[in-house]
Design a protein that fits this description.
Nucleotidyltransferase, domain 5, two-stranded antiparallel ribbon, globular, RNaseH-like_sf, exonuclease, Ribonucl_H
């Protein structure tokens, strides 16, 4: 059994024409023309403290990615609908600004202090991840040229729009050029599909107080089995987002970027050359 099929069996991804949740035949959809050859599904975990918000200087402590490829992409037309995980990358990351994890962070993510104490720093993790992309034929080993069309995908905008930008500032590095500015936010795609099929929002919370459905709500809205694994474990989150993308691809959704990273985005606590200005941090001890 190849990795894609093994992961599909572990994560309860429906086989074509059969819904493992409902045990009945489901609608077959026509594939769509897919511009991208591969998707990199990412769901980072980052340092956090109780009572803080997304303005906090979060440091990435887990960098998990599921590489997905189209199994049936037609060369001339680009039409495809069978999207599967073919490889995974996972690394814990050592925080450098606040190296000691809060109790709140450990309870939320399941990441222990020992996991990050023995982990490489973020620049080292990026170097390893680049090797993963080279190994899988996405990047040229010498030039970093993209060898196929790929984009990153995440649940919501925060992983790439916020956490990556913050971490690169704290690590005093630029965002690597092989991380595209544009990425795919699954929440936007799922909302469009579910609104079309269920205008009243009965399958996913789409009311004014919950406009952005969680992974759990997206799975429910698409009629998939419940979340598999531990929520807020980065690799488990990424695998479940991959399930969502696989189902969207099966339904004929065109999977392409719909959000972007602002490399120049700044928060008030950002000083010069990676300096963190503690006086601008709400809730700083």
């Amino acid at each position: 059994m190849n990795l894609g099929n093994l992961l599909a069996s572990k994560l309860h991804i429906s086989s074509p024409g059969h819904d493992v949740t409902l045990g009945k035949t489901i609608t077959e959809f026509r594939g769509s023309k897919q511009t991208y050859d591969a998707l990199l599904v990412i769901d980072v975990e980052a340092t956090c403290q109780a009572g803080t918000d997304f303005a906090w200087p979060n440091e990435i402590i887990e960098w998990p990615v599921c590489l997905m490829r189209w199994m049936d992409k037609d060369g001339p037309s680009g039409v495809a609908k069978d999207l599967r995980i073919v490889d995974e990358f996972r690394a814990f990351v050592k925080p450098t600004w606040r190296p000691v994890l809060s109790k709140f962070c450990t309870e939320l993510t399941g990441i222990e202090q020992a996991d990050v104490d023995s982990a490489p720093t973020f620049p080292e993790v990026l170097a390893s991840f680049r090797g993963f992309l080279v190994k899988n034929g996405l990047l040229d080993a010498e030039t970093d040229e993209r060898l196929c069309r790929f984009c990153f995908s995440s649940d919501g905008p925060w992983d790439l729009r916020d956490f990556l930008v913050k971490q690169c500032f704290i690590s005093k590095i630029d965002i690597p050029p092989w991380i595209p500015i544009d990425f795919l936010d699954t929440r936007i795609v799922v909302q469009g599909h579910v609104r079309k099929d269920f205008p009243d929002g009965s399958r996913v919370h789409l009311n004014k107080r919950a406009r952005s459905p969680s992974i759990v709500a997206q799975l429910r809205g698409l009629g998939l089995e419940p979340f598999a694994g531990r929520q807020h474990c980065g690799i488990d989150d990424a695998r479940n987002v991959a399930r969502i993308l696989a189902e969207l691809g099966r339904r004929g959704a065109k999977l392409q970027p719909n959000s972007s990273i602002d490399h120049k985005r700044r928060w008030p606590w950002m000083g010069k050359k990676g300096l963190i200005l503690e006086e601008y941090i709400a809730g700083a001890p």
